[in-house]
Amino acid sequence: xxxxxxxxxxxxxxxxxxxxxxxxxxxxxxxxxxxxxxxxxxxxxxxxxxxxxxxxxxxxxxxxxxxxxxxxxxxxxxxxxxxxxxxxxxxxxxxxxxxxxxxxxxxxxxxxxxxxxxxxxxxxxxxxxxxxxxxxxxxxxxxxxxxxxxxxxxxxxxxxxxxxxxxxxxxxxxxxxxxxxxxxxxxxxxxxxxxxxxxxxxxxxxxxxxxxxxxxxxxxxxxxxxxxxxxxxxxxxxxxxxxxxxxxxxxxxxxxxxxxxxxxxxxxxxxxxxxxxxxxxxxxxxxxxxxxxxxxxxxx
Length: 300
What we know:
Layout: E1 4-8, H1 15-28, E2 33-36, H2 53-63, E3 68-74, H3 81-94, E4 99-103, H4 110-114, H5 125-144, E5 147-151, E6 156-161, E7 174-177, H6 181-190, E8 193-196, H7 208-228, E9 237-241, H8 253-266, E10 270-274, H9 286-299
Parallel strand pairs: 1-2, 1-10, 2-3, 3-4, 4-7, 7-8, 8-9, 9-10
Antiparallel strand pairs: 5-6
């Protein structure tokens, strides 16, 4: 499978003040997909503009024609599978079948605490994994069955109707973000793609070589999880959300080509770059970014 190149556009611009143009420009540049984060707020962006992912993607669907759209990533932290399924079916319809759902267990940031009831502590990593383990299979059913009744430990649905279902059949694809054993099993069982940001333990202090070895190990463990589910690991796309490894792929065009080549050799099939945002952790030269978009794959 040849390498694809995509971008992630953070939802920080008003739609009528540069927001629409970024999504349209992503399509013009030839990106395979344009994603956005699905958070209530995120890290250093908390005190600035931050818009909802699903409404943003719906607007982007209406403003574009070909580019795939999606989340990187949605989580159970503030979502319920019944309402999310309804929104996704609508988004898939508006986009005429161009949506990919990036989804994971979520983290311990603002999403984990904003909606908690009084006296309730944010979920522990184990609790997040427990919720995700129930959330994803139920969402799978909701997107593929006309009517679902389910009673679980953490979620319930009673005759939840989702007619006519997704444009994409049997449902829109799941790109499952996971590195631990439980998440990798879910990716192997339900995913059409797998998402990684590399190993967060070495993102700040490790070397590019150590990062490559860490991702190699993740792909090997994904392969073992797929084998246990009776699937070929090659059935899953392998998506790397860049800018979280020790590498600096956006420093120059040549730096990206080298970065992309090494990760493609590991089995990565899609690299996602953040749209440059001045004065943030995602600051980068816009000209270099656009040259990467239009010329880099030809070098590989």
